Fold:
Amino acid sequence: MPGLWLTTATSLPVNDEVDTTNSQLASQFTLLLLSDLPIILSEINEASSPLSTALIHYLQVSKPTKSFLQISQSSGIPLPDIQFLASHLIYWRKARAIPPLHQRDTYIVSPNADMSRLISATSKFAKAFPALPSLPKIMNLLSTPRAYSTLIPSKDHKEAFMNILAWLLRDGWVTQLRTFVWVRVPPHIKATVESQKGDAERSLESSSIEQLPSPRTEAVAKGPPNTLAVPPPPPPPSSSPTSSTASAHTTIPFRTSSQEGTPPPPPPSSSSSLIQNPRQASGTSSRYLTAISTHVLRRQGVEGQKAWNRCLRYFDGKHAMETIAVQESWKRKRVAEFINMWETEGLLLKGRHW
Structure:
């Protein structure tokens, strides 16, 4: 349906272990108003409900670029109160829960945008944002995926352009393009795991052979017999010189372990594979993850390994990379640097979706 809200940014994975609240009203979300703020404030004043004063105060300090937690910290309103007021506004369809808008995120023209309303929307846009680029111009700039910050001419224009972004999202003209990744197991990691597996098997085989008792040891262990044993008579000498000469030069073949039929280790796979859910990996997949962690330690040091182990739970194709900075309280730039390094190393497969 044209104009329908189209994004996965307002939902969290089912049975999510990363965010234990599993709610759109978690502390890292915020509200996007579905109509202009003066109109909503006027309607609240006319309703004269017991929540009117609290709602007006919250709406005056709320911004779509700040999370519920950030608004609570800056305004002094308890976080549970903010979440309760937000749920009230969502119930009455005055707002929608979204991740906070950020200039480093990527926003594109929504595939579901209702272009039949473009002419009328252009007029409304010009009244709301005079002296700024027109709606068709903004839509044209957003037709190619790019960080939203590339559209902002200067720091003085940042607030105005973030208001433009909120306006575009509210009416379904644009949507956020999010990044999802999976763990990629390259061939050299598979070769390492196969080599370690072969070494372990050979070590186990060698250990078991060393533990086998020799016939001499068994005889000594059994002790002397109760009766005196008569040794068997020696074999009669051969009357044939030919046979005697042949027996003197007969060699007993010695079979090495390679001649005994021990198969060589299988060649490592020449193709990569994906681990769809690292948190539930077991068996070979678990050994791959251990080898990758060691590889990251060798290439990027302890800090890189710690970051990899911390971010691993997000690499299941269900958690957007844009949420890591908020969940882990890291800078977005730092997250982007780690993701780019791991992708360059061939350890991640990245995909993008709204």
Observations:
- The longest strand covers residues 174-185.
- The two ends are 16 Å apart (CA to CA).
- The chain has 13 helices and six strands.
- The beta strands are 30-33, 95-98, 106-109, 174-185, 273-275, 348-353.
